[in-house]
Amino acid sequence: MAPPAQSQRSPSPSQPSGVLIMVNSKSEVSDLKLQLRQLAGSRAPGVDDSKRELFKKVISYMTIGIDVSSLFGEMVMCSATSDIVLKKMCYLYVGNYAKVNPDLALLTINFLQRDCRDEDPMIRGLALRSLCSLRVANLVEYLVGPLGSGLKDSNSYVRMVAVMGVLKLYHISASTCIDADFPSILKHLMLHDSDTQVVANCLSALQEIWSAEASTSEEASREREALISKPVIYYLLNRIKEFSEWAQCLVLELVTKYVPSDSSEIFDIMNLLEDRLQHANGAVVLATIRVFLQLTLSMTDVHQQVYERIKAPLLTLVSSGSPEQSYAVLSHLHLLVMRAPYVFSSDYKHFYCQYNEPSYVKRLKLEMLTAVANESNTYEIVTELCEYAANVDIPIARESIRAVGKIALQQYDVNAIVDRLLQFLEMEKDYVTAEALVLVKDLLRKYPQWSHDCIAVVGNISSKNVQEPKAKAALIWMLGEYSQDMQDAPYVLESLVENWDEEHSAEVRLHLLTAVMKCFFKRPPETQSALGAALAAGIADFHQDVHDRALFYYRILRYNVSVAERVVNPPKQAVSVFADTQSSEIKDRIFDEFNSLSVLYQKVTTSFSQPFVLLCVTQIIKESRLTDIHKYLQPSYMFTDKEHRGPLEFADELGNLSIGEAANNVVPTQMVEENDKDLLLTTSEKEETKGSRNNGSAYIVPYDGSSTSVFASQTQIESAVSNPTLAGHSPQASFAIDDLLGLGIPAAPAVPSPPQLKLNTKAALDPSTFQQKWRQLPVALSQEISVSPQGVAALTAPQALLRHMQSHSIHCIASGGQSPNFKFFFFAQKFEESSNYLVECVINTSSAKAQVKIKADDQNTSQDFSTLFESALSKFGTS
Amino acid sequence: MLQCIFLLSDSGEVMLEKQLTGHSVDRSICDWFWDHVISQGDSFKSQPVIASPTHYLFQVVREGITFLACTQVEMPPLMGIEFLCRVSDVLSDYLGGLNEDVIKDNFVIVYELLDEMIDNGFPLTTEANILREMIAPPNIVSKVLSVVTGNSSNVSDTLPGATGSCIPWRAAEPKYANNEVYVDLVEEMDAVINRDGALVKCEVYGEVRVNSHLSGLPDLTLSFANPSILDDVRFHPCVRFRPWESHQVLSFVPPDGEFKLMSYRIKKLKSTPLYVKPQLTSDAGKCRVNVLVGIRNDPGKTIDSITLEFQLPPCILSADLNSNHGTVNILGNKICSWTIGRIPKDKTPSLSGTLLLETELERLHVFPTFRVGFRIMGVALSGLQIDKLDLKTAPSRLYKGFRALTRAGEFEVRS
């Protein structure tokens, strides 16, 4: 039904009128006191009406929160009346203040006890209820008598009140209640009373009393067990239709605890309760569903039938109730959908969002749509979700896009979805672009084969239009990962590095570091200066993680560039399952929670659903790993601080880390995994824990680099980095720094290895010049190189080789041929010089050999180039 | 079980507090709640169940009144929510509507009602019929009576007889001079039409409402001409399950007065009575809007009260919209509402005009959703038809009446 009109709540203080009245309340209260006193003894006609007015005033003060307890005596005096409304008001007043005024409460006992013997059962009941609601411990002795007669009263209303009174008494004084043997009276009533409300009250009272007693008394725990015994359960079930709807809930709840002896019993119970699924009260329906699910938990096929059976009632409840009820039912539906999405896959239209629904409902529905998506309905669901992307409600628009992405990650056929995502990128809405970028990144990690289509679109996005850290990080990740395919990747990265200080998100800076590293290994000449700037900025960064990562990269570069490359750019496997994919095991646990509050209040959706738990676990693993790396790194600065053996220590530690030459695959890949996980998992929690970890000591101290060891320069670099101005003053050892960090001092050879030769990644040569040169130059080198089997396999698409070689700054100018013989002409240019290398490469896929002819402008370096070419070619297919 | 119930006004003032168990709940929880509500911003449509630092809170908001209940233990959520909904229903039934003043004027009645509806945190009687016997409503008649007779008690002297009866929904046998029973079919059509004009979803949610004034213990049987079209049904507790299972016949002893006998859902309807064709084209910072509304499938009866409403996107500076039929209003919260009424014979109602976008925007990216309202008297659009209504022992004079009505529920057209 349509939601009721809801007016706007205004943010005013919560007790405005109370404050106003408070000013005059003192005099008002004493005024009331006087008036009450005058009326107390009066028997004039119409006195009840004036009393009513006064009582009403008193109670309205009480309601607003003004203390009117000082009127207690007068109120009690006025309570001698036959007017039931007056009595009710008086009971209300007494109930409210007795607890704080135990002495005065004694005054009321008298008239309450008298009322308990009134001839009107209504008054008997009300008086008994009020008597039990006084909750004053030293008055319990006055309760036992009226309660005992109340339980035997001929009127069911009084009995019903008395039963609840017993429970109240138990909470005030358990021993009094037990000593009076009330529980066994209740038990008798429960099994024999004709009034179902009395039975229900007995049941709820006994459950509470015996559960509380069970820990101390063996008898009580036996009694508690007896409640869920076959005779009691059957007795209650057979009468269930006579119970009020609320009492039915109570009985149904009890039934969930009952364990039937065999399957025929299960079917009997389910047949008996089946019509409860059509009850108008949602609480009854949910309680029944819980019974059904619980009973059939061990009977797999019946359990499935139960799902089918409960589907319709649940869906109707969602569409028929008030928004609050709908939400409560929807939360339960959500739980079931997550457990058995296939059952609901044909009902996906029920989870379509409506414009007027509050966003928490839409959010649940989006999750369900994501869950029920399968081969047959994906197209329609994704179409629907795409319509939400233009939603006025921005958070929902974002979440819809995320949902599309999740569906894409679930499905095998992502074709249409990728197109849609790419359309999002072109929608020119910043939040849409941001969400889509994050998704495209995840998608590429799972389906690298789509990189070509995606990168073409991503390449057109200006990084200036992307502001959100997560999206920016995703874009940067793609720039690094696919720098060989994106023409201007190094330059985009460079401009991002230039604006390092304006980048406030540590996450983005971390990714920027990694991306620049990746890009450097793919297109070294173009990225070199950016890398230097990034490392310098990173090491100077105030953020611990960024600083550490920059330092780590720097040192590993110093240690061995090829190791560094393997750390940063290892061969990657497509991610098949993301960490937040749920496991069925935890989903099973939901049944403990079905029909409980925790299904509803917001926090629980997370503590329920697996992602959160797993996330924590991954987070912990990650933490520990990072800490390990810290452990490894820390000693080195510690030592530079104290002794001169620091750098050596670092090398040793690196050895421990096994970044040595030999077994160097383990840790580096971990490291990369971490880089990548950062993209998937939020860093927020991580940062919290990290914030506290701060090695307060000034771990980089300018070091007087007079030693001749290689490691000295290491220390030197640190000082240079921490204090760039120093660099110029220590010419002895600065050769390595300059190049790497591009700090501006023109200096000699580059990175240790690949040593002598650097190629221009942006080399350009037009075909006619190439032909001319090819004719002119002599063959400098001719050799046969073997191609790895993977390489041969990858050659089915010759384009792959072209891209691969391009990532090594060797460009193709022409290619052709048919399997098994392919012919390629490559060229390369020396970095910052116009010296060219020309290559003719004929690859025979059947023999896995490549015939290579190299011609060079500068004959002296042709050998170096050949080595470079060979290494590049041999890596083809393996990376 | 519930520990406490508060009624808050729309400014967060505690109008009423009812402690239910020995563990009394401090009022400060309301301050926490109100702060929480305000921090949620204008989407005060916050969850019905909230976990505060000390309690779980249930909230149900009706007509600006917040019904807030607290508990510290696990309990079935719908028990709390349904109960609060019932409280609000009963109160509005008793007080003839809900608002701050009416509650403050009648808070004694509210206390009395709550006293009977819940004891020790466990719901008891929530049937208005029964409560009415225990606590007289504050109507004018009883006020007049009390003045005339001098009997100032506003509660009947009789005890609720039904609490002991095996038909808990029916008060002890009433007597009427004119025996009447009316059956209404009230349907709401929910539909979603997507951007391409395709009908994505179309369902009817319907209710069978009965208003019965019958003497004694009447036993009624209601049957439908085509019960097979019903997808799912829910019944008032008075409906006997077996006859429905075997013959799809509703057999029941009705409560006295008005009540909802059954509700049902019919899925997968193929068409809507109206079509709505929105067109939005943007160019150079302006967006041209054109919306046509007309009859798609003539239901055979007049479609009236046709309205069209949509939220203008936030990026719109001004709107100039006109129609050739009916009136167009742009409300303060940027909601454009077009009241059409009935569709004239000679022309197709259309709304057209331009929206001026914010200066930097070239095109509109956020498209409004059009919400359609209509009403058709005399027709149940789902096609459900009542066959007959029989009374087992028919009194001499019995009047039976049937009516049907369909209106738009959540009927939305996306652009």
Automatic annotation (TrEMBL), chain A:
Keywords in alphabetical order: Membrane, Protein transport, Transport
Gene Ontology CC terms, in alphabetical order: clathrin adaptor complex; endomembrane system
MF (Gene Ontology): clathrin binding
Main localization, broad class: membrane
SMART domains: B2-adapt-app_C
Localization, UniProt: Endomembrane system
Beta-adaptin appendage C-terminal subdomain domain span: 757-874
SUPFAM superfamilies, per the entry: ARM repeat
Gene3D superfamilies linked to this entry: Leucine-rich Repeat Variant, TATA-Binding Protein
Top-level taxonomic group: Eukaryota
Similarity comment: Belongs to the adaptor complexes large subunit family.
Function summary: Subunit of clathrin-associated adaptor protein complex that plays a role in protein sorting in the late-Golgi/trans-Golgi network (TGN) and/or endosomes. The AP complexes mediate both the recruitment of clathrin to membranes and the recognition of sorting signals within the cytosolic tails of transmembrane cargo molecules.
Quaternary structure and partners: Adaptor protein complexes are heterotetramers composed of two large adaptins (beta-type subunit and alpha-type or delta-type or epsilon-type or gamma-type subunit), a medium adaptin (mu-type subunit) and a small adaptin (sigma-type subunit).
UniProt-recorded name of the protein: Beta-adaptin-like protein
Origin organism lineage: Eukaryota, Viridiplantae, Streptophyta, Embryophyta, Tracheophyta
UniProtKB/TrEMBL annotation, chain B:
Positions of the MHD domain: 178-414
Organism whose genome encodes this protein: Gossypium australe
Gene3D superfamilies found in the cross-reference section: 3.30.450.60, Mu homology domain, subdomain B
GO process terms (BP): intracellular protein transport; vesicle-mediated transport
Protein name from the UniProt record: AP-3 complex subunit mu
Keyword entries, A-Z: Membrane, Protein transport, Transport
SUPFAM superfamilies on file: Second domain of Mu2 adaptin subunit (ap50) of ap2 adaptor, SNARE-like
One Gene Ontology cellular component annotation held by this UniProt entry: clathrin adaptor complex
Similarity-based family: Belongs to the adaptor complexes medium subunit family.
